[in-house]
Amino acid sequence: MTKKYLLIGTLFLAAAAAVVGIAVAVQRPPAAPPLAPEFSKRSRPHFDHAPVTPAKFDGPQAVTRSCLGCHPDAAHVMKSSHWQWLGDEVVVPGHEGKTRIGKKNLLNNFCLVNRGNEKTCTKCHAGYGWADDSFDFTKAENVDCLVCHERTGTYVKGMYGIPTKETDLVAAARSVGTPQRENCLGCHAYGGGGQGVKHGDIDSSLAHPFDEEDVHMGRHGFLCVDCHKAPDHQIQGRSFSVGVEDSHGVACTDCHAGHKHTDARVDTHVKSVACQTCHIPEFAGKLPTKAWWDWSKAGDPTRKDDTHSYLKIKGEFAYEQAAVPEYRWFNGTGGRYLLGDKIDPRKVTALNPPLGSIDDPKAKIWPFKIHRGKQPYDAGFNYLFPPVTGGTGGYWTTFDWESAFRLGSVASKIPYSGKYGFAPTEMYWPLSHMVSTKEKALACTDCHGEKSRMDWKALGYAADPIKTGGRQ
Amino acid sequence: MSRPLVLVLSLVLAAPAAAQQGVNPIHPAFAPLDAAGKKVRTAEEMNADKTCGACHDAVYIAAHTDHKAPRSAATCVQCHVSEARLDIRPERLDAEGKLRRESIRIGTPRAANCAGCHGLVLDVGSAVTIPAAFEAAPGPGRTWSLTRGEGAIVAAQRMSDSFLDLEGKESLAVPWDVHAAKLVDCIACHYARNSPARTDGKQGSLRYLTADPRRQTQAEFLVRPDHRLAEQDCRGCHDPLKAHAFLPYRERHMAVLACAVCHASGLMGPAAEMVDATAVTSLGGPVVRYRNVDRRPGDTLNTATIRPLKPLLVERVESDGVRRVAPVNLVSRYRWVSRSDGADVPFATVARAWIEGGAYAPEVVAAFDADRNGRLDDLELRLDTPQKTDLIAARLRALGVEDPVVVGNLDVHPLAHGISTRDRALKDCNACHTEDSRLADDYVVASYLPGGSAPRPPDGSRVALEGLIAPSAGGGLLLQRDREAAPGSLHVLGHSRQAWTNRVGFLIFLAVLLATTVHAGLRFALRRKRSHVEHPAGDKEYVFGRYERLWHWTMALSGIVLIATGLEVHGTGKWNVMDLTTSVAIHNAFAVVLIVNAFLALFYHLTTAAIRNFIPHPKGFLANAFEHMTYQARGIFYGESHPRNAAGQKLNPLQQVTYLALLNVLFPLQIVTGALIWAVGKLPAVANAVGGLHYVAPIHNLGAWMFLTFFVLHVYLVSTGRTPTDHLKSMITGYQHVDQDAPVPEGAER
Questions:
Q1: Residue range(s) defining the domain that contains residue B53
Q2: Is A18 close to B557, i.e. CB distance below 8 A?
Q3: CB pair distance less than 8 Å for B158 and A443
Q4: Taking Cα atoms as reference points, which of A342, A419, A408 lies closest to residue A380?
Q5: Shortest CB distance from B589 goes to which of A11, A21, A450?
Q6: Among A344, A383, A336, A136, which Cα is nearest to A239's?
Q7: Which ipTM did the prediction report?
Q8: Chain B, 443-472: which have a CB under 8 Å from a chain A CB?
Q9: Does A130 score more than 90 pLDDT?
Q10: What secondary structure letter does DSSP report for B56?
Q11: Distance from A426 to chain B by nearest Cα, in Å?
């Protein structure tokens, strides 16, 4: 018997050796690196909440109380910036000590400031009734669960974030589930007071994008929360408009780690060029985005109102569509204009300048939407000013900057010298959405050669690096 | 108007031109001159030789250029100036009659300059469309050779983004021309030979010099640039051996194939089969038949569907002097020639012979309108009968042309441009390594012969058009090629057939197969008739040692795999069990297994003296052999027992003879020829020393048939034991029943 097994064993070994020989001889190219772990489109069944939803709610807070009855941990959302509109303590470059910054206390060059304008601004706060500093951020029942989780598409938040009277709270509560693209877009596509005003790469067309517009959500059916995961309601992601560093952010390489391009030359770009630079060849492809906002032109009763060019309450605009990004070095951190910082009104003030340069090994060339404009400033103290516009007695009702400044001075606790003016500013919006298909990615000639979308000199190169070589 | 405003306006107006050629900041201001050397104030009066020749050595350049008359009508301006036109107007000149700086848009030739004559060569950022000029009357030197000749469109744009209707367009998200897309422009390969900027410039023929360090200075070069442009081929920049890791026989492929065979295997530009300037289209151009365009009546090239161009593969002397198989397109070009002076009849004259007052002459319509619909379609515009030819000839004579005749030339355009990315390269082994290989494709030379005259092949061409140019159905010409051969007498695995060796081998195999079938049939048929002799199952004896069985089955396994994969290689495309690469890899792997096994077995047999079993015993050999033959021919049918072997031997004389031949002739032959076939890829000198694949492959092929024949015979004879499975069992277990009347078991299948 032993002999028999020996024989069989030997034969088996010979066969195995032959197989190994073949395997060595047949040089198959290595398998393609795995793509995103959850690459395929998924359907998400969700627990049907209809049977457990009360027949009537007396007010939106009652809905939240009902949610918390079964999901007490959901109150952890109160630690997130979606609730607090403030981030963790950070060192803001050029400022001493650590501060907490966020939508709550920062200026921008769109609707300018939240303080004093809560009436309209907090429409997008994930809470109910934030009217002024007296709002109780510790009260869990003030959290708005529905805005992120309801799926009827009929839930509308009105002034101070309280649902409009027409909203059917019961229907909304019955429909809850994983946040859909529409939930996120409800606020993030309309930031700044309208469709596509703020982000160049987020507008409501992303609810149903075609492949070229956004390959992740179009071709592969991703939801926002596939990348912006929210363990314990701490939603991953970092908006550069209200943050100065990139902790807790989402990166392409979270899924596409170690990706190799088919052309080795392309791979040499990776250390100096962000993925987004080539893979987001243009932004605002389907719907236009605001590129210019001049507050100084507001209040002219002779001009005709038009959403895309002029509104008496807001001033003059310019929109761009299918726009080519502007490119800057960016190492993931930035500066931030804080309330009270001095400006030179003759120069353009960058509210959130991206940091990084050709000499910064961590910096890469990133695509940006740059929103430029002119906004109110205190001409005596030379700082940008947070006037009250949308709030009670604000500029939008009185068309009087003087009173708007005085009200703002109180709301934001910042002195007003009595002289105002309008100073040029710009805001940087790094682009990460609207990633197109690889067939539409930039090719060599988009940046190299005579017709380049890069301003090589401004980026710090002697000339086109295809001829002079890249940075060392 | 103020000066700055004029400047701004002129810059705005000149914006489209800026895409082509910028203002040259270092070119000195110059005065445009006419042929007499007098200053002029308009572009029309200017003489380029005189104007440029004031500084550049126009005489030297004229003597050192490929772009010379009559082949080309290129002037300095055509190649070096934006839009091929110097903007000379009185307001562009200064007080001294010199052209102002902002009008000096002069520099190295740009894509658009080359495009003026050669075809669709586009600047970065331009969308690919086919301009109307492409189908209009031919201009001097304007052959569109790149596009019409080669099917190439040189553009950085992705094909899927272009405006043309391409077959499978959605999958063509790759640039029209990967070089253009990667900023390699025309002059990167076609540079002035004595340019000091080129480090590979070499003059003279000293073989031990790779470059010439004594260069002209830039200043000298600018005076005397050698306009015989370099023809840098792929290997000038690329080292093909450093890529193509996936390819078996990499060195061999690179030695015999031009890069373009695989990398220009499906160009998507409209490539002509014939440019027939004896007839005139309604657009006023020559009649052009395309090879890869599906055109419905009324389609322009922009709306017609363009398919990938399948080129003709021929042997060609490449620019490094090496003969390689290369893809070409054949274009027959027909024109009217006046026999009295041998000069071409100007196309404008031909057009007048066809068209009167903006429409075809009634006489012409009457003669050419085959379907009687009152219109002349492109398919009707052909001089395919003597009557039609005579009619146009008569009309030409009426226009003053003396003795007009139709003359055709066959132009050979090697494919070298419009190379796309590697994703579009030909990777299908079966394209060449099959019986119906594209290496042996027939090729339409012309689908009809204008004026009945065959096109004249080029003189002194670097291309060998092997095959027979024969008339085709429809009155054209077809290049017919030997179905089993390949260009340059290459031996192509899976395609080339070794006529007689293959046939003889197959016949022997067939004969043996037939004989064994008949033999087996007889055994079966006669099994009842025979005198029923019981063959008692005597004692079992251990006859095959463990190692003997191991090496036997290893040999069997590798032999079967070798034959199977060998057949797969031989008949690639017919069986398609696996692809050629895999078959070759498996074949090679098992060849190694077989060779190692054979040597180990030889060692075993020598050291254990078991080799004696294989050596015939001279005493009584013939008688014993005869006895065995008689048994197989007669006794076996009547149930006789096996004759005995010589004392102490496992093999009978017939086996001994067979194995002597097998092991001493066939084995070494297959191993050596197999190794040589392998060596063709790695050590070409060794294989070439014995005549290359041409001789080696047929022998290996014949040997393979012999092996297969042996295999059939061997398997059959296994069944001739005491019972049909007795021998098989013995080779598995090692034990064999011993015939009582045959104390020494026959047993002897390997």
A1: 1-107
A2: yes
A3: yes
A4: A419
A5: A21
A6: A336
A7: 0.78
A8: none
A9: yes
A10: S
A11: 30
